[in-house]
Amino acid sequence: MRSADVRAELGKFVLPTRGGWAKPLVLYQNYWLNPERLEHIIPVKKHFKPRRDDIILATYPKCGTTWLKALSFAITTRSGHAPAAGGHPLLTGRDPQKPKDAFVSWWHFVNNMHKGSSPIKFDDALSMFCEGFSPFGPFWEHCLEYWRQRLARPEQILFLKYEEIVSEPVEAVKMLAGFFAVPFTEEEEMRVVPEEVVRLCSFQMLSGLEHNQTGDVARGDSIVVGKSMFFRKGKVGDWENQMSKEMGKKLDDVIVRQAQGVWSCILIHLFG
Predict the structure, then answer these.
(1) Which helix (H) or strand (E) holds 27?
(2) Which of 1, 65, 238, 269 could crosslink 43 through cysteines, CB 3.0-4.6 Å?
């Protein structure tokens, strides 16, 4: 789809626009998006045809995306690239997280990705996030939509929590392998292959690689992301070092309010 066609398509809409973040966002189908991203989303919606064997990793930004990509790649390619072998592709080249940790990670990320923009104050960013006004927001709507689909199609959607992957990484890797229809064999488990996958894809391993510490990734004319920004701390509960208890309660209250009745038990499962 050509750029001119995309702009013509966008011209059919009168989209609400709001400032406050580094760049104004537009509201498209109940989600706040960077206009530059929207120009790519529309062609994908029109022309993307998924295959039955496609694997789609869906995470909110800064919620373990890079880690999940590495784990998935290592699991599905282990027949050709043994995790314990030298020269693994992950070493030579190229889930929902709790709302409070997700917000803190996202705030750090946004303040470093826009060239020439003034930093966004933490309090202002939190207020907008709690309103549901944030890039790709509202955060909770993503989680609830995928949770609904997971209940409807459990064989097609695997719902993972970042905190569970951190606390029990080997079990999470086995769960992923089973979901991808490439479960670990008894022989592989005896050779501790799941543990090797965890070691290969650990935060310390990936963040320490030279090609993940230097260089930039361009995302449009005004967005440049340093590769090191994809790895901050990778810790659960770091929000307590950035956010007061009152701020944390404010965000918790928003999540519970958005759940409304039947969704309360689901949110407790997701975020509790």
Answers:
(1) strand 25-28
(2) 1
Residue pLDDT, tens place only, 92-143:
333 444 566 667 666 666 666 655 567 778 888 888 888 888 888 787 777 7
The torsion angles phi and psi of 216, rounded to 5 degrees, stand at: -125, 160
The span from the CA of 104 to the CA of 112, in Å, is: 13
pLDDT at 189: 94
The answer as to CATH 3.40.50.300 being correct for domain 50-271 is yes
The partner residues of 216 in beta bridges, in order of sequence, read 226
pLDDT in tens, 76-97: 888 766 665 554 444 333 344 4
Residue 26, strand partner residues: 17, 33
Give CATH 3.40.50.300 domain extents, the chain: 50-271
Tell me how far apart the alpha carbons of residues 224 and 179 are, in angstroms, rounded to a whole number. 34
Cα gap 63→60, rounded to integer Å:
6
Measured CA to CA in angstroms, residue 53 lies from 156, 190, 210 at distances of 10, 28, 33
**What single DSSP character describes residue 30?**
T
Planar angle of CA 199, 202, 204, nearest 5 degrees:
115
Q: Which tokens in the block code for residue 244?
A: 């007061």
Closest CA to 72 of 226, 161, 200, 261: 200
